[in-house]
């Protein structure tokens, strides 16, 4: 059944905002639906609004088999929204899903003047714009915003038709008198945005090239990189600060960190590695952000291992962790060596420092992705030693078998195999050298392009 909730009103200068969530039950939409339950998703949406500086005064939800092609929600729910607006005097409506330009236009017309209809994507983009601190972050956010706004530009010109009578006045011209200038200005704006998009992409290509140079330098210095990943607000920045005194901004807000920070950490066995804090993930992550933040997200795809931080106290930690795993898979980083840090374990009710099975991410138990997560508290700096020992084991001790044919020009890879791995067999061939043995899992991506599908006959006979 549809439901509505009303918060206690408070005096605030922030825009008064009403939330709308839809539970889509159709087969197609169930497959695309977020892992978080609707109630949890709406709570998260309220947090996003708070982070963006909006005051949430109420919310409503509806269950539908498929979105209404005109207004996303049903006509009865639109009438209910009109009644809520009269009662609560809000000026912003935020939907928990991404709306099409038509949905936004129809809803704003139905709800009357001076109403702004936003969706989750627009809200997240706004938060990213507020939190971008560096030139790189600002470029990436601006690119994502223009990609989102370009197909929605037509909405800005609907007022022209209304000024001209919209086809219902005495002239019945439907806005003919102003349509030409409006459409001309619209094309000018579209062209300017496309030009700006091309400029932003060129600048971000330069950023990607610079990052690639930094990564190449790290490889030459043989320093492994561990990317800290996780759901937004899971405690990634707090963890990096605990490990390195990095002074990364820490706030109890979603997406407090956008720009990656990299610091050296010495592991218990003496190895030095680089830990990189990365932007947090969230369910329904806008595709524009994934594309725009490619330069930053490459820090994840190029890392030697991942440290997946899970807020073990969150009631939907399993769904959050699964969302992160889905996003990593989309980025092509789902099979990287991974350590799970179960953060905020000090807040659990159990007196024991051990995390019981009820609090472990269910997805890990079901899919075999996690045998033993490491309980930690980044805030209190507990569990750090055990976590770093596990990272060290993943980077240096856990070996995988592989056979490769390395071109003779790849002398650096031959040396790397001999130095970091265990060579069981080696034989020169006409154009390459065949090597078989075991290497640390973190090096698997480096050698996979040269993987051999057959073994030389002489080695087979030995």
3D structure, described in words:
By secondary structure, the chain is α/β, with parallel strands linked by helices. It folds into 4 domains: 3-131, GTPase HflX, N-terminal domain (Rossmann fold, 3-Layer(aba) Sandwich), CATH 3.40.50.11060; 135-154 and 162-204, no CATH class; 223-397, Rossmann fold; 399-461, Alpha-Beta Plaits. Helix content is 44%, strand content 19%. The protein is built from 17 helices and 14 strands. Helix 4 links the parallel strand 4 (92-95) and strand 5 (116-119). The chain is elongated and about 80 Å long. Residues 1-11, 155-180, 349-354 and 358-371 have low confidence and may be disordered.
Name a few traits of the molecule:
alpha/beta, Rossmann fold, 19% strand, disordered N terminus
How is this fold's topology laid out?
Elements: E1 3-6, E2 16-24, H1 27-32, H2 38-52, E3 55-64, H3 75-88, E4 92-95, H4 101-111, E5 116-119, H5 120-131, H6 135-149, H7 158-163, H8 176-220, E6 225-230, H9 236-244, E7 261-266, E8 272-277, H10 287-292, H11 294-301, E9 305-311, H12 317-331, E10 338-343, H13 362-367, E11 374-375, H14 384-397, E12 399-407, H15 411-420, E13 422-428, E14 432-440, H16 444-447, H17 457-461
Count of DSSP strands: 14
Q: Count the helices. How many?
A: 17
Q: What class would the helix/strand composition place it in?
A: alpha/beta
Main beta-sheet strand count, sense and barrel state: 6 strands, mixed
Strand order of the largest sheet: 7-8-6-9-10-11
How much β-strand is present in the residues?
15-25%
CATH superfamily of the largest domain: P-loop containing nucleotide triphosphate hydrolases
- Radius of gyration in whole Å, from Cα? 26 Å
CATH domain topology of the largest domain: Rossmann fold
- Residue runs with pLDDT of under 50 for 5 or more positions: 1-11, 155-180, 349-354, 358-371
Helical residues, percent: 40-55%
CATH class of the largest domain: Alpha Beta
- The CATH architecture of the largest domain comes to 3-Layer(aba) Sandwich
Distance between the termini: 72 Å
Task: Characterize the overall form.
Answer: elongated
How many structurally independent domains?
A: 4
Taking all residues together, what is the mean pLDDT?
Answer: 79
């Amino acid at each position: 059944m549809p439901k509505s909730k009303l918060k206690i009103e408070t005096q605030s200068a922030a825009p008064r905002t009403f939330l709308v969530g839809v539970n889509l039950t159709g087969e197609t939409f169930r497959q695309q639906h977020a892992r978080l339950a609707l109630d949890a998703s709406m709570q998260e949406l309220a947090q996003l609004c708070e982070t963006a500086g909006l005051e949430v005064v109420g919310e409503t939800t509806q269950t539908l088999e498929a979105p209404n092609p005109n207004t996303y929600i049903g006509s009865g729910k639109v009438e209910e929204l009109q009644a809520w607006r009269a009662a609560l005097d809000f000026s912003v409506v935020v939907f928990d899903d991404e709306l099409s330009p038509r949905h936004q236009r129809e809803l704003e017309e139905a709800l009357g003047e001076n109403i702004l209809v936003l969706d989750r994507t627009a809200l997240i983009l706004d938060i990213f714009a507020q939190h971008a601190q560096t030139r790189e972050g600002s470029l990436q956010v601006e690119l994502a915003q223009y990609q989102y706004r370009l197909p929605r530009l037509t909405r800005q010109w609907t007022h022209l038709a209304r000024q001209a009578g919209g086809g219902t006045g005495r002239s019945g011209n439907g806005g003919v008198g102003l349509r030409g200038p409006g459409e001309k200005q619209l094309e000018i704006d579209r062209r300017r945005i496309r030009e700006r998009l091309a400029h932003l992409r060129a600048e971000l290509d330069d950023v990607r090239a610079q990052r690639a140079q930094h990564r190449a330098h790290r490889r030459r210095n043989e320093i492994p990189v561990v990317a800290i990943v996780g759901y937004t607000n899971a405690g990634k920045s707090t963890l990096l600060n605990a490990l390195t005194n990095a002074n990364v901004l820490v706030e109890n807000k979603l997406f407090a960190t956008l720009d990656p920070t990299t610091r050296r950490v010495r592991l218990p066995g003496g190895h030095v590695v680089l830990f990189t804090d990365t932007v947090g993930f969230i369910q329904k992550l806008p595709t524009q952000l994934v594309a725009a933040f490619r330069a930053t997200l490459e820090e994840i795809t190029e890392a030697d291992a991942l440290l997946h931080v899970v807020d073990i106290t969150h009631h939907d930690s399993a769904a959050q962790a699964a969302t992160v795993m889905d996003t990593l898979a989309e980025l092509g980083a789902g099979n990287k060596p991974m350590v799970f840090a179960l953060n905020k374990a000090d807040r659990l009710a159990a007196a024991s420092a051990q995390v019981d099975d009820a609090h472990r991410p269910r997805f890990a138990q079901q899919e075999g992705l996690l045998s033993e997560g490491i309980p930690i508290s980044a805030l209190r700096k507990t569990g750090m030693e055990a976590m770093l020992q596990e990272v060290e084991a993943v980077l240096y001790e856990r070996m995988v078998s592989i056979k490769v044919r390395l071109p003779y020009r790849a002398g650096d890879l031959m040396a790397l195999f001999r130095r970091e791995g265990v060579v069981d067999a080696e034989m020169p061939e006409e154009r390459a050298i065949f090597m078989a043995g075991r290497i640390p899992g973190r090096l698997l991506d480096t050698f996979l392009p040269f993987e051999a599908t057959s073994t030389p006959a002489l080695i087979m006979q030995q």
